[in-house]
Amino acid sequence: MDGSRTSLDIEEYSDTEVQKNQVLTLEEWQDKWVNGKTAFHLEQGHQLLKKHLDTFLKGESGLRVFFPLCGKAVEMKWFANRGHSVIGVEISELGIREFFTEQNLSYTEEPITEIPGAKVFKSSSGNISLYCCSIFDFPRTNIGKFDMIWDRGALVAINPGDRKRYADTMLSLLGKKFQYLLCVLSYDPTKHPGPPFYVPHAEIERLFGKICNIHCLEKVDAFEERHKSWGIDYLFEKLYLLTEK
């Protein structure tokens, strides 16, 4: 590989259109859980979040933290253990049940009256509630506003054609003085169709720039052996902090 491809300052692809017609249905995402195709799950949690978590939380307790497309993210337990209220949305009921089982948490489940066929799963302690529904149906629950969003594996999983709708949904859920933590991936989108999809800085500016200050906190080399099967030879992850303008 040439030097530019090993640099964390690699030039991004300006062509954001290359993946624009890629679509995965909710059923296809559910099938990934059924078939165990969940390599995106991090059993040890996200190391960049772990590194910056105490800085983000600033010693506060009682924050409302939202996990879009949460899967069975162990980070939800991190926030709950620090005294925060965690709300997640996930289309896979299997993923939600696996979270509670793997974290040794007892839970209850009940229907969501505002969304026919949807359910909410609540930890017995009451500080983790996971909604099994589409992210676009979720606002119908009138859940209120959040202090923080942890968006890892969410924006990058949304079909590119739905990003504006997704971003507007996220922004509608944010309260005052919010912190929106966003992870995106950089790779050659002409070599891998996604998901996860390629989201360049310009796209983040387009989606969030009118409402948010956008800061790239860190870039790390995220390439692993398994990514060779994607047809790519580099992969970088970026952690952004979005705050109120």
From TrEMBL:
<comment type="similarity">
    <text>Belongs to the class I-like SAM-binding methyltransferase superfamily. TPMT family.</text>
</comment>
<dbReference type="GO" id="GO:0006805">
    <property type="term" value="P:xenobiotic metabolic process"/>
</dbReference>
<feature type="binding site">
    <location>
        <position position="69"/>
    </location>
    <ligand>
        <name>S-adenosyl-L-methionine</name>
    </ligand>
</feature>
<keyword id="KW-0808">Transferase</keyword>
<dbReference type="GO" id="GO:0008119">
    <property type="term" value="F:thiopurine S-methyltransferase activity"/>
</dbReference>
<feature type="binding site">
    <location>
        <begin position="29"/>
        <end position="40"/>
    </location>
    <ligand>
        <name>S-adenosyl-L-methionine</name>
    </ligand>
</feature>
<dbReference type="GO" id="GO:0032259">
    <property type="term" value="P:methylation"/>
</dbReference>
<dbReference type="GO" id="GO:0005737">
    <property type="term" value="C:cytoplasm"/>
</dbReference>
<dbReference type="Pfam" id="PF05724">
    <property type="entry name" value="TPMT"/>
</dbReference>
<protein>
    <recommendedName>
        <fullName>Thiopurine S-methyltransferase</fullName>
        <ecNumber>2.1.1.67</ecNumber>
    </recommendedName>
</protein>
<keyword id="KW-0949">S-adenosyl-L-methionine</keyword>
<keyword id="KW-0963">Cytoplasm</keyword>
<dbReference type="InterPro" id="IPR008854">
    <property type="entry name" value="TPMT"/>
</dbReference>
<dbReference type="GO" id="GO:1904047">
    <property type="term" value="F:S-adenosyl-L-methionine binding"/>
</dbReference>
<comment type="subunit">
    <text>Monomer.</text>
</comment>
<keyword id="KW-0489">Methyltransferase</keyword>
<feature type="binding site">
    <location>
        <position position="90"/>
    </location>
    <ligand>
        <name>S-adenosyl-L-methionine</name>
    </ligand>
</feature>
<feature type="binding site">
    <location>
        <begin position="134"/>
        <end position="135"/>
    </location>
    <ligand>
        <name>S-adenosyl-L-methionine</name>
    </ligand>
</feature>
<feature type="binding site">
    <location>
        <position position="152"/>
    </location>
    <ligand>
        <name>S-adenosyl-L-methionine</name>
    </ligand>
</feature>
<dbReference type="InterPro" id="IPR029063">
    <property type="entry name" value="SAM-dependent_MTases_sf"/>
</dbReference>
<dbReference type="InterPro" id="IPR025835">
    <property type="entry name" value="Thiopurine_S-MeTrfase"/>
</dbReference>
